[in-house]
From TrEMBL:
Name this polypeptide is given: asparaginase
Record carries keyword Hydrolase: yes
GO molecular function term, any single one: asparaginase activity
Gene3D superfamilies: 3.40.50.40, L-asparaginase, N-terminal domain
Asparaginase/glutaminase C-terminal domain residues: 264-372
Entry similarity comment: Belongs to the asparaginase 1 family.
GO biological process: L-asparagine catabolic process
Protein's organism: Zygosaccharomyces bailii (strain CLIB 213 / ATCC 58445 / CBS 680 / BCRC 21525 / NBRC 1098 / NCYC 1416 / NRRL Y-2227)
UniProt-listed NCBIfam families: asnASE_II
Length: 378
């Protein structure tokens, strides 16, 4: 049957060698275009929606030249960072927001709560969240977020870099690309806060920065979950979150307009450490964390000063690995209730955050001790 809607034209005058093109009428072209657009739109709408929150850090920094890997400054917006990564239009839909643009050493409680609010406000509208962050205090922010937000199975991925964007072999673009892919991957659901760095997928709750310069800068003895290779995310274990992680429900209105948590100080113990430091801190702060010399060991005079205080004092450790168990805590006189708490596996900086959250909720010493004991072995 003849189709009057098609017109056949030769593109070569020699009939025996001629090639033919079939051209649709204008109405056919319009229908085909609309059909293709509908299919493309449907495919696009089924892609995960990912929210990217920018906070700054080395990943958003520039140096004076391509060989500079120190002394750089934060200079790039999250939009500029996204322009440096491979095309992700086939992976997910992207929206982004610049929460701040600072070196992570400058992240304070006001910025921490801004990150908290940015994540909380995005939970119901997106399938995954990525936060760009400086590596120096990334472990602290990740720990705080895991301890304060119940985000269900939604992947929340922190990402940073060790080299500025202007450096030869800058690691930021690939780290960010991988973080977005990890957040968009269905296998990432139900794993809590994740960290994407140096081709590794790690548990944000446990991650610790152990090298100030190397690309392989994070140690995650308790939380190395998988790796990223050739556009694929490979996990070693089924989805699971940190066991016994205590969730603190925060009411942002209680911290506005001036965000302020109870102040907790950290003392780094060493040979000949002055016991009077404990007294000085107790007069000024609501709590104290001590990075002890081993698994809770301190000079007798320091222990006595600690037990004489009324503020909660957490015994942590200055070593990277290991734990401080309850059995290594000093014992008070029988008529006095102990005010000391074992940190278990927690580092001093994470112990500080957890003690702050306990004090925010007005927990008793025993309640705080139970929180630390929940997963950390304290």
């Amino acid at each position: 049957m003849v189709n009057d809607n098609l017109e056949i034209k030769t593109i070569c005058p020699d009939a025996e060698k001629s090639l033919f093109t079939i051209e649709s009428t204008e109405s056919d072209i319009q229908r085909e275009t609309e059909a293709f657009a509908a299919v493309t739109s449907d495919q696009h709408n089924t892609l995960p929606r990912i929210k990217i929150l920018g906070t700054g850090g080395t990943i958003a920094s520039k140096g004076a030249d391509s060989s500079q890997t120190a002394g750089y400054h934060v200079d790039l917006s999250i939009q500029e960072l996204l322009e440096s990564i491979p095309d992700i239009s086939g992976v997910c839909q992207i929206e982004y927001e610049q929460l701040c643009n600072v070196d992570s050493k400058d992240i304070n409680e006001e910025i921490l709560l801004r990150i908290y609010k940015g994540i909380s406000d995005s939970l119901q509208s997106f399938d995954g969240i990525v936060i760009t962050h400086g590596t120096d205090t990334l472990a602290e922010t990740a720990f705080f977020i895991e301890s304060t937000i119940d985000f269900g199975d939604l992947p929340v991925v922190f990402v940073g870099s060790m080299r500025p964007s202007t450096s030869v072999s800058a690691d930021g673009p690939m780290n960010l690309y991988q973080a977005i892919c990890i957040a968009a991957d269905s296998k990432s659901r139900g794993r809590g806060v994740l960290v994407s760095l140096n081709d590794q997928v790690s548990a944000g709750y446990y991650i610790t920065k152990t090298n100030a310069n190397s690309l392989d800068s994070f140690n995650v003895r308790q939380g190395y979950l998988g790796n990223f290779f050739n556009n694929e995310v490979h996990y070693y274990y089924p989805p699971v979150k940190p066991l016994g992680c205590h969730k603190f429900k925060l009411r942002l209105e209680e911290y506005m307009p001036t965000p302020r948590f109870p102040e907790v100080c950290i003392i780094y113990a060493h040979q000949s450490v002055d016991p009077e430091l404990v007294d000085l801190v107790a007069k000024r702060y609501k709590g104290l964390v001590i990075a002890t010399m081993g698994a809770g060991s301190l000079p007798k005079a320091v222990n006595e000063r600690c037990l004489a205080q009324t503020i909660p004092i957490v015994y942590s450790k200055r070593s990277m690995d290991g734990m401080v168990p309850n059995v290594n805590l000093p014992h008070p006189l029988e008529e006095k209730t102990s005010n000391v708490i074992a940190s278990g596996y927690l580092s001093p900086e994470k112990s500080r955050i957890l003690l702050q959250l306990c004090l925010t909720k007005s927990y008793t010493i025993q309640e705080a001790r139970n929180v630390f004991y929940g997963v950390y072995g304290g």
